[in-house]
Design a protein that fits this description.
Number of helices: 8
Helix content: 40-55%
Order of helices and strands: HHEHEEEHEHEHHH
Strand content: 5-15%
CATH architecture of the largest domain: 3-Layer(aba) Sandwich
Distance between the termini: 29 Å
Structural class: alpha/beta
CATH topology of the largest domain: Rossmann fold
Strand order of the largest sheet: 1-2-6-5
Largest sheet: 4 strands, parallel
CATH class of the largest domain: Alpha Beta
Oligomer: single chain
Radius of gyration: 21 Å
Length: 208
């Protein structure tokens, strides 16, 4: 379809625009396993496959659709859904930082070669509730949560690997953890001490 230059300039990150301009840009769409039950996802995947667009669909499969195990909400194989459109599909351990990085880099290069969209399922886990009110989490056991936290923590896995390879020592990770905690605490205190917004601000940045 014809797209004039001003329109393309306004949407440089859209995969259609990137392909038409030959910019080498690749779009990455992140969504949870719950989105696999929504038709809009498949409509866009169909278009991406037809037009050979440079886009990567990243499904963050944390095993639960809000309160329900994926096995009770997703029929068939997840990767088979993407492959039905002729889209290249892979699955990786989403808790392995280096593996996710290497896989995404390869898929981005593939898209830049004009080989079309890809679908990546990252198997991961949500440690806590789906929202602030999801406290008891009766749909799963505390033992399951503890196992994921102790055996599959992505930060601990990466730290252990880097330490084992002699690329970093424990003091580096301790400093990072301390710096992050300080930044979070400072941000929280700043928010708590901030003045309450004036009534005149209630309709600011509201467009509809």
């Amino acid at each position: 379809m014809p797209v004039d230059p001003p329109t393309m300039a306004l949407a440089p990150r859209l995969p259609v625009s990137a392909k038409m301009r030959g910019s080498g840009q690749v779009a990455a769409c992140f969504f949870g396993d719950g989105a696999l039950g929504q038709g809009l996802l498949y409509e866009t995947m169909n278009m991406a496959a037809l037009w050979t667009l440079p886009v990567i669909y990243v499904c963050e499969n944390n095993l639960y659709g809000e309160y329900t195990p994926c096995g009770e909400t997703i029929a068939g194989e997840i990767l088979a859904r993407a492959r039905a459109f002729g889209i290249h599909a892979e699955s990786v351990d989403g808790q392995d930082v280096q593996l996710v990085y290497a896989t995404m880099r390869r898929l981005v290069e593939r898209a830049r070669r004009g080989e079309g969209p890809a679908f990546l399922e990252c198997k991961t886990y949500r440690y806590y509730g789906h929202h602030v009110g999801d406290v008891n989490r009766e749909y799963r056991t505390r033992e399951e949560e503890k196992e994921w936290m102790s055996k599959h923590d992505p930060l601990q896995t990466l730290a252990s690997r880097l330490s084992g390879q002699g690329l970093a020592d424990d003091s580096v990770f301790e400093r990072i953890q301390s710096d992050v905690k300080t930044e979070i605490d400072d941000g929280a205190q700043y928010a708590l001490a901030a003045p309450y917004p004036a009534e005149s601000q209630v309709d600011e940045d509201v467009y509809a």
